[in-house]
UniProtKB/TrEMBL annotation, chain A:
This is Cytochrome d oxidase, subunit II (CydB). Belongs to the cytochrome ubiquinol oxidase subunit 2 family. It comes from Micromonospora coxensis. It is found in: Cell membrane. Signal peptide: none annotated. GO terms for cellular component: cytochrome complex; plasma membrane. InterPro entries: Cyt-d_oxidase_su2 (IPR003317).
TrEMBL record, chain B:
It is found in: Cell membrane. This is Cytochrome d ubiquinol oxidase subunit I. Its main location: membrane. InterPro entries: Cyt-d_ubiquinol_oxidase_su_1. It is a multi-pass membrane protein.
Amino acid sequence: MELAWYALLGLFFASYLVLGGYDYGVGLLLARGGPATRRAGLTALGPFFLGNEVWLVAFVGILFGAFPTLEGELLSGFYPVVVGALVGVILVTVGVQLRSRPRSAAARAGWDRVVVVGSALAAFGWGGLLGGLLQGVPLHADGHVAGVTHLATPFAAATGLAMLALVAAHGATFLTLRLPAADAAALGRLAGRLVPVAVVAVVAATALGLLSDRVRATVQQPTAAVLLPSALVTALLVARAALARRRPGVAFAATGAALALPVALVGATLWPAVLVSTVDPAATLTVAEAAASGPTLRLLGWLTIPLLPALLGFQAMCWWVFRGRTDGRAPVYW
Amino acid sequence: MDTLLLARLQFATTTSIHFLFVVVTLGLVTLLVGMQTAWFLTGNPKWERLTRFWGQLYVINYVLGIATGIVMEFQFGLNWSGLSRYVGNVFGAPLAIETLVAFFLESTFLGMWIFGWHRLRRGVHLALLWGVALTAYASAFWIMVANAWLQNPVGYEVRDGIAHLTDFGALLTNPTFGMAFGHVVAAALLTGGILMAAVSAWHLLRRTPDFALFRTSLRLGLVTAAGAVTLVQGFGFAQFGPIGQVQPTKFGGSPAADALVAEWTARFGPGDYTPPALASVGLGFMILIGFTLGAVWLLLPLLWRDWIIRLRFPLWLTMLALPLPFVAVILGWIAREVGRQPWVAYGLLPTEQAVSRVDPGLMLASLIGFSLLLGALAVTNWTLLARHAARGAADPALGRPPGTPDDEPRPAPAFA
Ligand code: HDD
Ligand code: HEM
Ligand code: HEM
């Protein structure tokens, strides 16, 4: 039963990275172009924005309900990255939703800058968190993580940057798929240039990981640690090829997979642990230990599993209703 | 400064900001449902315009509800990891249910509602707003279940120093839940009603266009506020019974409180088990505000033949009342939360054991950072709200037909 909940937890975080990922990607791309370009990007995001971010909220909810011990140790053990990512999420949430409420061009440009900064912080923070999990934490037997300096490694920085590059490529691919056909070609070229950057960033992070003693000591399943980064790079190459052949749908699916894979990577390489201790092997926290006790999981199961189809159904309804490329008749609000 | 104090300060600041926004969300969405349903049923364009105008304010307000809510959610793990370790099995369940059952759908629905004007059939569009409202109430329901459990832990047993869930039903029948939930919902309606009446009063005093529109929303707001204030008072006084029984130390000395303190001293060792006086002070002022706002009833007869508008001074009074419900909700929460000190979970988990073992410097940095960030965002948001409220109902961006020239910027005024 713990495994099912662990998979669900991973599913929600991965979905958040895929869906929130293109929000942040589009957010980063607000750094370029004039008001009309930025308006087009935000209109493309439009109806999906609120429904994307909520995967993060649900992820933390499941984390708290089904893995209470993990929640406390994970979040407080990674204090600075989590706070950084959180600040980023807040800036994006507020920036996107409020940027069009003032009417002056200067105010809107100011909010757009807030969104750019927020998107960068969020992507970097979540990437750093995933990297941090892979390099283990100084977790003590009484369940607390000592200090925060354990985070400051080249590997964690590299995973943060890799996430940033992934998100930018994913966002550009999303816009290629969603903007009016006339504007899509230029974005396709941009995405085509960003994907190789992401490949380089991912490969560099992987190399740093392989060189790091801490990461090698933390990995529990070496096969997964090799296979999944390869799958990630493959997904990016598929995206590159699809962009070159003007198949934005395929490319978007591929960059989406590239954003989901890091979560699978962390989950699978650490299994059966979730938090590996670098100071005391006995303190390592396994999935089973991190999970809530039986009655709580059963209760949550009875209440939420029947609801999942409804949750997914309404999200799917949103995608369906607002599918296709934006055009002059697309509602403008953000 | 120690980590505990900083963590408490941070919780108090961020939750207070969160609540100032969600209380409006909860109140306004109820009124919006009424207005859009009236539009659907009568087809009268007046209701559509009302829905768009108030909907615009609602959506702007909502932004900070989300932003601060996300901080709240993470804060449990960041600053209160002891809470999840010792009582997470029980306390986490309602929070998890809330996020999945309520927030997830609420935001999905709201996104479709904002962008669905002119695209979805009117019935579907209305159903989405109903969905938003119902899930908002569901979220208040579950968060109050969680909070009530901290006030009075029930339905659990402690094994190996950790609380395990034994009886979920007990969480729902918790004596600290029912009346408090009613009180909070009524307070939200009261706040929404007063807000609507006050903004309308401003327009009527300034004699801006759209007299008929703001006349309607003034009446709607005042009637709602009057009904709600009575409910607030009823549910408020009804809370004293259960509180006296399960939290005798909350509002000052009594034989039951002394007995409980003696018991705790025996079990947990000597300590200061009486909450700060701040709790009772907050309570007193809130009740004062509750009675003051009860005077809304006196304005209702003046609705006859629009005397309320012709006399003008009642409009001024309505505007002056606007800050009161906001002050009251914060005071009420201070009474409830400070009154349960020194416990996070009353009689079960002392606050000092729940706090994360984070370096005080880090905690201070995050306290200052989040307070400044959320405070600045809150002020910005209220400024935008005030501007949009003042701009009137001529052409809100919400629900503007697609293809109409957007208000995409005219050249910015030159500052240099
Ligand atoms: C518009 C806001 C508002 C107004 C006018 C009032 N209250 Fe209130 N009160 C709240 C908004 C509120 C609140 C913020 O919603 C609280 C905080 C926690 C809760 O359950 O409701 C609260 C808490 C709260 C508590 C503390 C519950 C606890 O400690 O567990 C009591 C005893 C009362 N109220 C009683 C009253 C009475 C007797 C009132 C007036 C006659 C009154 N309140 C007016
Ligand atoms: C309903 C959901 C809520 C939950 C689950 C909750 C939970 C908590 C927790 C865990 C703490 C920190 C531990 C402690 O100091 O006891 C706390 C403190 C506090 N909360 Fe809440 N809270 C809720 C709502 C609110 C709201 C809406 C307010 C609005 C003002 C509020 C005001 C405070 C204050 C002032 C403190 C500090 C008390 C003190 O440390 O002296 N709470 N609450
Ligand atoms: C301290 C505990 C609390 C936590 C952890 C919390 C968490 C959250 C979160 C994460 C959101 C954003 C959801 C989204 O993305 O849509 C949110 C919004 C909301 N919260 Fe809270 N909340 C707390 C206290 C409260 C209280 C006491 C109430 C009311 C009784 C409340 C009512 C709402 C409502 C109605 C919303 C949705 C509307 C909006 O975003 O403005 N919350 N909360």
